[in-house]
Amino acid sequence: MKMLLVLAGTASRENVEIALERAGVTGYTEVDARGVGSSGRHLGSAAFPKTSTIIMSFVADEEVPKLRAALKALPGAAPRPHVVTWTLESWDA
């Protein structure tokens, strides 16, 4: 089992959700975020109105490559989401 963390601009949030659902991800947690990174300032302010979304999910090891490929292939001009995966030491479900 892996912990998957997706960092995406809010403009591409819906496409990320669709990719997760098509890949068979049955649950995830989504958090609105603000910050500064490689895709610029996403501060939700008048000067920097963009915001970001963080989506976290637990994914079976064998599903991770397919899901990462689907997220990398998302359509649109927005920067592609950043995807981080961690191997879980334990998970009390």
Task: Write up this protein.
The structure is a single chain. The chain has a single domain, classed as Alpha-Beta Plaits. With 93 residues, it is α+β, with helices and mostly antiparallel strands. The chain has two helices and six strands. It has helices at 13-22, 64-72, and strands spanning 2-9, 29-33, 35-37, 40-42, 52-59, 82-87. The protein has a four-stranded antiparallel β-sheet, with helices on one face. It is globular and about 40 Å long. The two termini are 12 Å apart.
Largest sheet data:
4 strands, antiparallel
Estimated helix fraction: 10-25%
Mean pLDDT: 86
Uncertain runs are none
Q: Per DSSP, what share of the residues sits in E-state strands of 2 or more residues?
A: 35-45%
> Kindly, what is the distance between the CA atoms of the first and last residues, rounded to a whole number of angstroms?
12 Å
Shape: globular
Report the top-level CATH class: Alpha Beta
Total strand count, please? 6
Task: Describe the structure concisely.
20% of the residues lie in helices and 35% in strands.
Topology overview:
Elements: E1 2-9, H1 13-22, E2 29-33, E3 35-37, E4 40-42, E5 52-59, H2 64-72, E6 82-87
Antiparallel strand pairs: 1-5, 1-6, 2-5, 3-4
Question: What descriptors fit this protein?
Answer:
single chain, 93 residues, alpha+beta, Alpha-Beta Plaits, two-stranded antiparallel sheet, 6 strands, globular
